[in-house]
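does this look right to u?? zinc ion version
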Amino acid sequence: MLAGHLLDGTGVSPQADVAIQIAGGRIESIESAGASSMDRDSHVVDLRGWWVLPGLIDAHMHLWGLTPGEVVPADFETRLANAREQARALLHAGFTTVRDLGSPISPWIRDSSSTNPPTAPRILAAHVGLTGARGPWLIPQPSWWEARVVRGVASARDAVRRLHDEGVDVVKIGASTGPGAQGFGDIPTLTVGEIRAVCEAAHGLGLPVAAHAIGSEAVRRCVVGGVDTIEHGYGLSDDVCDLVAASDAWIVPTLRTRAVRAAAEAQVTAWEQVKTLRLGVAAGIRYAAGTDSVGDADTLHGPGNALEMELMGRVLLPDAALAAGTREAARMLGVVGETGTLEVGKCADLIAVPRDPRRDLSVLQQVEFVMSRGCVVRNDASAADS
Ligand SMILES: [Zn+2]
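got this back:
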C-alpha cells in the first residue's frame, strides 16, 4: 500500500510517501516509498492522495438493532438483522473496533460475523448490565436494554460469574441513575461494597469493569471500588476529578448522544459534559472516545459516530482527540497490542481520509477507504482515482 501521508497514531509527526507492506492480516513493514523493496508482484493499493491512519474505535456504543422511529422493540430476528446491518455500517465508516456496553444482541453479532472478509468491527461485548435496585435501565416496559439487579455483595459476585459463563468481554454496571427525570441522573445506585465485589470477581476472571456513573458521589464510589472505566462521568467536582486522575480509571465522556438531541434536558446535559471535560483535562484524567450511540434516528450507527472526536476536539488538542478514538481507546480496551496504532506486527486495521484530520476532525466522518484485519472492506479512494 502506498500512503500519501501516514499518521501512525503513535504520536510521531506524519510521514509523507510511505509504503506499507501487509501480509496475513498484519503490518509487515512501513518504510519510505522511495526506499521500499515492496514486492512488485504484490497487489498495491494506491492511497497517495490520502491520509492513512489507524482504524477508529467507538469505546461505548449499543447494537440494539433498533428500527429508527420504532417505539416498541421488534422481534429478536428483526433486531438481529438490523444490528448486523448497523455493524456493517460502522465498519464501512472506519470503525474497526467497538465496545458494546449493553445489548443482548452484540454477543451474537460478535460470534457470528465473518472475519475474512470482515462484516463487522472487532466487538467487545458486555451483553446485559448489572445495577442496584432502582438503578438505571429498569423501566416497566419492553426494552431494548436488559439489566439484572444485584442486591448485596454475594449477589454481585454471582451476577459476574453468570456473565462470565455467558462469554462477556467486559462487565457493565449501572452505578448511578439516569440521566432523565432525576436531573443529571446522579443518584448512586450501588454501594462501594457492591462495586468492589463486582470488580474483584470480574478481575479475578480476567474481565474489566465499565461503570455508568454520573455525579461526584457515584464516580467516587466507582474509583474506590476499583472500576476500570467510567462511562459518561460528568457533573464532577474538582476533588473527584483529581481522584479519578490519580487512579487507573479512564473516563469515556459520551458527548455525541446528548449533543445531537434537541431536547432541553439533552442540551443542558451536553453543556455539563463539556464543563466537566474541561475540569478533567486540567486534572489529567485519561480519556477515550465512545459515543453512546444506540442506532435511533438521532444516533444512527455509521459516519456520525466519528462526530465524537470532533466534539472532544473542542476541549482537547486535535492530536489528543484523534488519539482518544484510536491509540488511547485501544489502550483502555486492552487491545493496543493488536490495533489503535499502525506499527509492524499489529493488525492492518486502517482507514484513509482526504485531508489532515488534525486540521479538521470532521474529516473523520468522510472515510473513503477501510481495511480491517488486512482485508479491504471499502475503497472509494482508488475508485475516485482511476
Ligand atoms: Zn451506553
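The first strand starts at residue 2 and ends at 6. idk if thats expected tbh
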